[in-house]
């Protein structure tokens, strides 16, 4: 079983404006060079069962839009929540402001406004990029009792969800950040994220330019091996005239193989 220590798994991107101007920022970078290292929150392996090809996608941890290395006024205003989903070749930058409809221009302004979901290739965005997944040994916990015992003994755990969807095999793996344990009734339940979940419906696939566009941010919850419920981040009305990006859309997937794995 190939598993990862997410606390030691990172992605790193390099921006060098002397080689290539950045295309995802909203301000002039204070310096010509920056290497950003981001902890990986989740990985999702997608296998095309027709071709046999497999691609790994990772989700970087959230951060806020910032000016790096300045002596004051670090945070850009209006400030955005920023995360990215990446493979070795593709990149999806996700930015969310206080509510939908806020317009922030990219730098330079000739690039137009910042999209909430910016689709790029790695080569056209960064001058360097790498994904470092830390492989470790682990063992699957086979019973609720074993999962509960590991939880109460404060062992490091990760979750893995596998399922088939049309032509694709999906395997999502992420650390267990939050888990409920009840040793009296032998009940456990994870509630953890953010992770990435692909929407492989024909409607979604038909709208994509690149496959990476099928991914949404979500939280995962399950309490048994054979089904999972996700809560998906989608545009959500906060009032008659204001919408925000919020985890509000539930999606259940049956016939899964869910595992809780103890890191060695």
pLDDT < 50 runs, ≥5 residues: none
Give the end-to-end Cα distance, rounded to a whole number of Å: 12 Å
Overall pLDDT metric: 96
Number of helices: 3
% residues in beta strands: over 45%
Shape, principal axes of CA atoms: globular
Largest sheet: 12 strands, antiparallel
User: Given the helix and strand composition, which structural class is it?
Assistant: mainly beta
Report a brief summary of the structure.
This protein is mainly beta and 264 residues long.
Give descriptors for this structure.
single chain, 264 residues, mainly beta, 2 domains, five-stranded antiparallel β-sheet, 3 helices
Could you describe the 3D structure shown?
The chain is mainly beta. It has two domains: 3-132, no CATH class; 137-263, no CATH class. It contains three helices and 19 strands. The chain has helices at 122-125, 144-152, 202-207; strands spanning 3-4, 10-16, 33-48, 54-60, 63-64, 81-86, 90-96, 117-121, 128-132, 135-136, 138-140, 157-165, 168-175, 179-182, 187-198, 215-222, 227-237, 243-254, 257-263. Strands 2, 3, 4, 5, 6, 7, 8, 9, 11, 12, 13 and 19 form a twelve-stranded antiparallel sheet that branches. It has a five-stranded antiparallel sheet with strand order 14-15-16-17-18, covered by helices on one side. The longest helix is centred in the middle third of the chain and has 9 residues, at 144-152. It starts with a strand and ends with a strand.
Ordered list of secondary-structure elements with their pairings:
Layout: E1 3-4, E2 10-16, E3 33-48, E4 54-60, E5 63-64, E6 81-86, E7 90-96, E8 117-121, H1 122-125, E9 128-132, E10 135-136, E11 138-140, H2 144-152, E12 157-165, E13 168-175, E14 179-182, E15 187-198, H3 202-207, E16 215-222, E17 227-237, E18 243-254, E19 257-263
Antiparallel strand pairs: 1-10, 2-3, 2-9, 3-4, 3-13, 4-6, 5-6, 6-7, 7-8, 11-19, 12-13, 12-19, 14-15, 15-16, 16-17, 17-18
